């Protein structure tokens, strides 16, 4: 049966996991569906998620749109890859019960549609095809597996503390631009649980962007030439760089490349320097450098060989002799190639892409998709993110002493939930209220005008 | 020039008023600055009925030319030249003072013509916006400023103090796109970035805190969306007026003209093509294989196979055959040979022969019917069991591929044709098919099945 077909008969396919009596003293590190039930029951911040996705429309203000949250698509991935799309929930308790009930391995969040997505078929039968996405956070998805030609320590979905900083600087570059260039304020960065980060831009203006404008933002961030298969080649043309690229380069990328990546990935070691030489379009320069590096395998100064070679390369490329901007630009191109954020553009361009919800548990690693504070993203350590089994042990320890919903405060998830509430949700709610007030007074003003007209 | 548009000759009436409106035409031309009107409100100009139609046809030629240029993927510079040439060729008026009137009148007539369906509105909106874009580009920055004021675009230019603070960044952008460095005289507009998303996407503007700083020579990017959204709303309103009022009120005068214009074909008349004429029945299968466009080939093959065609198919193929020179007697024999296998000779004579004679103007109102143009065929709506219509538009991709393969289109060209058809460039898809089969280019593009036939015969004759 296709996934689609399964979706249409969701109710038949959902079963609660078998109740298990065994003690959970010895909790294995990997993901376990039974613990997931406990997690959704005692730790998952249902109410905060609901509050977030209501964007102030759950209030009493006359301008609140009561149908708003009910038009949002949730999709659940259950055990055995059963995939339930177009779920919707009208109130906080419905959402909480839905999640506890189905105990999804993964929760994805889709757009807000013109009508309740669970009733889309009824609308389709009524003739008018009015089922269409009307609002969606601007989202970004960055995966470390897209950086395999920029790191030697790991590949694929694996990640370690040597390559994770590539994600950190992606956050810095994109976050700064979203705030300073585009003027967005309500931005949530989330660890995807395994190999990357997600970004949710939640400002009203961002949620209402059309696909064309989303595409423009994606293009603004694009520096890689060609399609996804040729990501490694950056092309920086023109006699100057756009201020966004200049800032990204001089504030973030250059330092990171020179002070971290160069040495941590040994980019100019004997076995690896050819790859960088290939990026220089002038053969006399590459053979000069190759000559130097072959003869002089160990640096005498005691400095790291990668740093020494990088200085030599820069000196040769940027010396006054090099007239062509193409050659001088080459240093920047190398830095960009290795460090500039590699976004999955398709996710950002369209309103109807689904993205995994924060606070899900990654089914392969058991890690919680916790928020990342961009202001201190250097401190984020993916190998230290709480796992499902760790949380379960903590619940076992503190659970008996603490009243119902306060359990989370005493677990290692406490910090993440406090950040989510204090630094993301609270300012977001404030701006939602202001927006609702504003649209209301505009409406009142308009109706006054039409009375006198 | 085009026979089917000469409907007006019976109404040699004095003058008509286009649309009733209290407002004065408020074009920038009033200040003697711009020659581009913004078509904000319907003119109170009086117009002779024959001008009503003639102006519209002239403008339609411009818009069709633009449509063709876009479909061919012409670059901005080529488009600029094309638009300027098309405009000069079609929108002149012997009396220079009336050029703007002609511009305005023709625009408003075509609004009536193209307001009537979603598809027509979309096409008109797209072509008029493109036309405006390139005309705007040719104007001076004083005109740009005047037009922006008139469009009610509220953006303030950046103040000197703000400019000084941003000068370095603005210079960086100017250098990065190879433009002149800004000085304190350079005018910049500060606009929400969403309104110039194409400039943002190509990093051709500096943006800060949600605002884009747009140089005066880039303003076309935010003027166009304004122009477009205004026109889009206006078209919906016009449609409402048309269905609720104008169509009925004008049913004896404007309505027939308006209805004919959207499907009218503006090329040469193929009603009776004397040049080739007289295709005889014995050659018809061979000629169909070599020189029929896909739509006619499909109808022809279906008829041979089913010995029947429904009304839409009989009209489309029948008039085409008349156009290529099949005489009435031969046409009757041709249709009878097929249909009688299915319905019997008697029923053919009784039920179908009339229609064929009718097409030749021998029955009924005795009008000589004209072969359908591509435009008309593309806009037709074939139903179940129908074989007429434009295969590039109405076939499934699978069927189109099979049909093109059968026509002998090579696999590489086939992909291009399918690509164009998917991109809704049906006539260009047909042109590419023609070029693939004949191994010769067809620069004029295919606009009419009979033109396809004629061009094909020309090439085949040369080869002999
Ligand atoms: Zn690693």
UniProtKB/TrEMBL annotation, chain A:
The record's section on InterPro entries has: DNA_primase_S, DNA_primase_ssu_euk/arc
Cofactor(s) needed by this chain? Mn(2+); Mg(2+)
Task: Write out the GO biological process terms.
Answer: DNA replication, synthesis of primer
Q: What is its EC number?
A: 2.7.7.-
Residue span of region Disordered: 1-27
Example of a GO cellular component annotation carried by this entry:
alpha DNA polymerase:primase complex
The alphabetical list of record keywords is:
DNA replication, DNA-directed RNA polymerase, Metal-binding, Nucleotidyltransferase, Primosome, Transcription, Transferase, Zinc
Bias (Basic and acidic residues) occurs at 1-12
> Which leading EC class covers this enzyme?
transferase
Acidic residues composition-biased segments: 13-27
Q: Name one GO molecular function term.
A: metal ion binding
**Tagged with keyword Transmembrane helix:** no
The record's PANTHER family line, in alphabetical order, gives: DNA PRIMASE SMALL SUBUNIT
Q: Family, per the entry?
A: Belongs to the eukaryotic-type primase small subunit family.
NCBIfam families xrefs: primase_sml (TIGR00335)
Task: Please identify the protein, giving its name as recorded.
Answer: DNA primase
Output the lineage of the source organism. Answer: Eukaryota, Viridiplantae, Streptophyta, Embryophyta, Tracheophyta
UniProtKB/TrEMBL annotation, chain B:
One example GO MF annotation: DNA binding
> CDD domains of this UniProt entry?
PriL_PriS_Eukaryotic
Q: How is the cofactor bound?
A: Binds 1 [4Fe-4S] cluster.
Keywords of the record: 4Fe-4S, DNA replication, DNA-binding, Iron, Iron-sulfur, Metal-binding, Primosome
Q: Which GO terms describe its biological process?
A: DNA replication initiation; DNA replication, synthesis of primer
Matching entries from InterPro entries are given as: DNA_primase_C, DNA_primase_lsu_euk, DNA_primase_lsu_euk/arc
* Pfam families, per database record: DNA_primase_lrg, DNA_primase_lrg_N
Specify the superkingdom: Eukaryota
Query: Where do the DNA primase large subunit C-terminal domain residues begin and end?
Result: 285-453
Provide the Gene Ontology terms for cellular component: alpha DNA polymerase:primase complex
What cofactor is needed?
A: [4Fe-4S] cluster
Q: What does this protein do?
A: DNA primase is the polymerase that synthesizes small RNA primers for the Okazaki fragments made during discontinuous DNA replication.
| Family of the protein in this entry | Belongs to the eukaryotic-type primase large subunit family.
Could you identify this protein by its name?
DNA primase large subunit
Instruction: Look up and give the organism this protein is from.
Output: Lactuca sativa (Garden lettuce)
């Amino acid at each position: 049966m296709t996934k689609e077909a399964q979706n249409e008969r969701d109710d038949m396919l959902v079963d609660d996991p078998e109740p298990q009596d065994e003690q959970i003293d010895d909790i294995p590190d990997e993901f376990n569906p039974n613990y997931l039930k406990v997690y959704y029951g005692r730790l998952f911040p249902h109410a905060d998620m609901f509050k977030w996705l209501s964007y102030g429309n759950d209030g009493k203000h006359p301008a609140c749109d009561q149908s708003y949250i009910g038009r949002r698509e949730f999709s659940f991935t259950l055990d055995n890859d059963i995939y339930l799309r177009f779920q919707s929930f009208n109130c906080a308790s419905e959402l909480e019960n839905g999640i506890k009930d189905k105990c999804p391995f993964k929760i994805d969040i889709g757009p807000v549609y013109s009508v309740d997505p669970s009733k889309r078929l009824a609308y389709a039968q009524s003739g008018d095809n009015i089922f269409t996405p009307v609002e969606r956070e601007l989202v970004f998805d960055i995966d470390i597996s897209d950086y395999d030609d920029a790191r030697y320590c790991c590949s694929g979905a694996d990640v370690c503390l040597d390559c994770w900083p590539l994600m950190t600087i992606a956050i810095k570059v994109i976050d700064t631009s979203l705030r300073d260039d585009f003027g967005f304020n309500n931005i949530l960065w989330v660890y995807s649980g395994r190999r990357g980060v997600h970004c949710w831009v939640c400002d009203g203006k961002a949620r209402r962007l059309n696909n064309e404008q989303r595409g423009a933002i994606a293009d603004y961030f694009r520096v890689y030439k060609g399609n996804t298969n040729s990501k490694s080649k950056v092309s920086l043309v023109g006699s100057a760089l756009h201020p966004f690229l200049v800032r990204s380069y001089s504030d973030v990328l250059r330092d990171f490349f020179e002070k971290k990546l160069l040495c941590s990935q040994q980019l100019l070691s004997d076995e690896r320097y050819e790859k960088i030489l290939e990026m220089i379009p002038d053969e006399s320069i590459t053979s000069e450098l190759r000559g130097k590096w072959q003869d002089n395998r160990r640096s005498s100064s005691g400095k790291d060989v990668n740093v020494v070679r990088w200085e030599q390369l820069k000196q040769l490329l940027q010396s006054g002799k090099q007239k062509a901007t193409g050659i001088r630009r080459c240093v920047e191109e190398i830095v960009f190639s290795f460090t500039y954020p590699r976004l999955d553009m398709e996710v950002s361009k369209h309103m109807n892409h689904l993205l995994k919800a924060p606070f899900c548990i990654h089914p392969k690693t058991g890690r919680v998709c916790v928020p990342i504070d961009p202001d201190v993203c250097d401190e984020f350590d993916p190998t230290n993110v709480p796992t499902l089994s760790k949380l379960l042990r903590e619940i076992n320890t503190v659970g008996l002493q603490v009243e119902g919903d306060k359990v989370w405060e005493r677990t290692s998830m406490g910090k993440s939930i406090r950040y989510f509430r204090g630094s993301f949700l609270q300012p977001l709610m404030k701006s939602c209220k202001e927006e609702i007030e504003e649209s209301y007074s505009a409406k009142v003003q308009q109706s006054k005008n039409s009375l006198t007209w | 020039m085009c026979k089917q548009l000469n409907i007006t000759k019976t109404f040699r009436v004095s003058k008509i008023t286009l649309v009733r409106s209290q407002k004065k035409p408020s074009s920038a031309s009033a200040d003697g600055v711009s020659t581009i009107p913004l078509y904000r409100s319907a003119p109170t100009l009086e117009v002779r009925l024959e001008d009503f139609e003639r102006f519209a046809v002239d403008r339609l030629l411009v818009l069709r030319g633009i449509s063709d240029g876009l479909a061919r993927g012409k670059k901005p510079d080529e488009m600029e030249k094309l638009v300027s040439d098309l405009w000069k060729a079609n929108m002149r008026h012997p009396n220079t003072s009336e050029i703007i009137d002609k511009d305005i009148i023709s625009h408003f007539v075509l609004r009536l013509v193209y307001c009537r369906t979603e598809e027509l509105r979309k096409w008109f909106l797209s072509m008029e916006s493109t036309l405006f874009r390139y005309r705007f580009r040719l104007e001076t920055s004083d005109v740009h400023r005047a037009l922006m004021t008139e469009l009610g675009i509220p953006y303030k230019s950046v103040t000197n103090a703000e400019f000084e603070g941003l000068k370095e960044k603005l210079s960086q952008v100017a250098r990065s796109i190879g433009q002149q460095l800004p000085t304190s005289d350079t005018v910049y507009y500060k606009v929400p970035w969403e309104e110039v998303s194409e400039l943002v996407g190509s990093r051709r503007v500096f943006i800060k805190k949600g605002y884009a700083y747009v140089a005066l020579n880039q303003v076309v990017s935010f003027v166009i969306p304004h122009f477009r959204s205004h026109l889009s709303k206006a078209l919906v309103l016009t449609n409402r007026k048309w269905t609720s009022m104008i169509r009925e009120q004008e049913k004896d005068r404007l309505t027939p003209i308006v209805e004919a214009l959207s499907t009218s074909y503006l090329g040469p008349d193929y009603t009776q093509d004397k040049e080739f004429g007289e295709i005889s029945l014995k050659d018809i299968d061979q000629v169909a294989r070599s020189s029929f466009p896909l739509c006619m080939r499909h109808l022809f093959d279906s008829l041979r196979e089913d010995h029947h065609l429904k009304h839409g198919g009989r009209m489309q193929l029948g008039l085409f055959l008349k156009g290529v020179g099949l005489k009435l007697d031969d046409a009757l024999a041709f249709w009878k040979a097929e249909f009688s296998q299915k319905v019997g000779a008697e029923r053919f004579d009784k039920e179908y022969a009339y229609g064929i004679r009718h097409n030749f103007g021998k029955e009924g109102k005795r009008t000589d019917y004209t072969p359908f143009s591509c435009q008309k065929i593309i806009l037709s709506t074939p139903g179940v069991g129908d074989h007429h219509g434009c295969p590039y538009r109405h076939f499934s991709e699978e069927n189109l591929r099979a049909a093109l393969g059968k026509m002998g289109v090579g696999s590489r060209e086939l992909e291009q044709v399918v690509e164009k058809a998917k991109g809704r460039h049906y006539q260009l898809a047909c042109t590419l098919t023609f070029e693939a089969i004949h191994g010769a280019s067809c620069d004029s593009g295919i606009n009419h099945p009979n033109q396809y036939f004629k061009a094909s015969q020309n090439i085949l004759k040369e080869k002999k």
